[in-house]
Amino acid sequence: MARPREFDPDKALEQAMDVFWQHGYEGASLPDLLSGMGLTRGSLYKAFKDKRSLFLLVLNRYEQIAVAQAVALLGDDSIPDGADRIDALFASITDAVEAGDKRGCLLCSAAAGPSSYDPDIAAAVKQALQQMHDGFSTALAASDIPPDEQPALADLLVTQYVGLRIMARSVDRLDVLSRAGAAVAGLLRRG
């Protein structure tokens, strides 16, 4: 008879997410994962197969949590002006760094790293970034931006968001992030 698992798979995924978030996909070694998850090598391989499979599960969980929260903010009808929703999302980047969270965005790190050579990771990143694009489109539809400009602006906002979240991992000066957020706000309210 097989022995029951002696760990909570959901908690282990959360712990793996923290390791990947801190070290990135390439930088997260097997010892880092084992230590961070509190698992033995055999338990990790039995439950999650390998590092890549574990990372794909972590990306899925990240999408369900962090991406869903960002998209919910962008679609929040209690904030009538969509530009204000976008401002709030960009301000949250600076707020996180100011509070000491320099992990950036796991999705954005994956977009800048393993998605360039792994088609499954690329597909997961593409799906989550499409959700962000749809969220920006929803917010822009509730703004004063002319409808014919909204698709290109949604593209620009996704790239700006990804760039700022990646920069959040290495920028020591908050003014850089703040100025970029202010530039986005100015773009949304031009005219």
Automatic annotation (TrEMBL):
* A molecular function (GO) term: DNA binding
* Pfam families per record: TetR_C_13_2, TetR_N
Please name the InterPro entries in this protein's record.
DNA-bd_HTH_TetR-type_CS, Homeodomain-like_sf, HTH_TetR, Tet_transcr_reg_TetR-rel_C_sf, YxaF_TetR_C
**Gene3D superfamilies, from UniProt?**
Homeodomain-like, Tetracycline Repressor, domain 2
Keyword list (alphabetical) reads: DNA-binding, Transcription, Transcription regulation
Residue span(s) of domain HTH tetR-type: 6-66
Q: Does the keyword Transcription regulation apply?
A: yes
Origin: domain of life: Bacteria
Residue ranges of the annotated DNA-binding region, renumbered to this chain: 29-48
Q: Which PANTHER family match?
A: TRANSCRIPTIONAL REGULATORY PROTEIN
> By what name is this protein known?
Transcriptional regulator, TetR family
Q: Which organism is it from?
A: Litoreibacter albidus
